């Protein structure tokens, strides 16, 4: 019997006949470890508008103690959340641990290439963003890849405030 089934957790189609999936996110335990050992998070597509999701998520992460580095060519040189905004990952003058992406899926492969070039450790595509080409580029470059997950939600679930 040939049919497609939904992978319950991500809502991605999986070919039951082949019984394989091209991409799987790290386990919750691995994600917890990534967040625990993270210093700098470069947020690609971080808006300077407080009502935008990228701004709200980055602000919440900053309030939880993470260093946020804004990356947005439209806001280059401005301050967002008290940090200088850069046009690209290549312009960031310090080490980047996580590249957190708020861009449409089709725009992520070049971001993955740049993340590899700057030596980031993790490529994190926010909830609703999924691109297997970007994932393959990052994984081949040695990065851990997380897709279609909200970094703020993961942080809150894995490191609840007591």
From TrEMBL:
Pfam families for this protein: CoA_binding_2
Give start and end of each CoA-binding domain: 35-129
Specify the superkingdom: Bacteria
Q: Which InterPro entries match?
A: CoA-bd, NAD(P)-bd_dom_sf
Stretches assigned to coiled coil: none
PANTHER family from the UniProt entry: COA-BINDING DOMAIN-CONTAINING PROTEIN, CYTOPLASMIC PROTEIN-RELATED
Protein's name according to its UniProt entry: CoA-binding protein
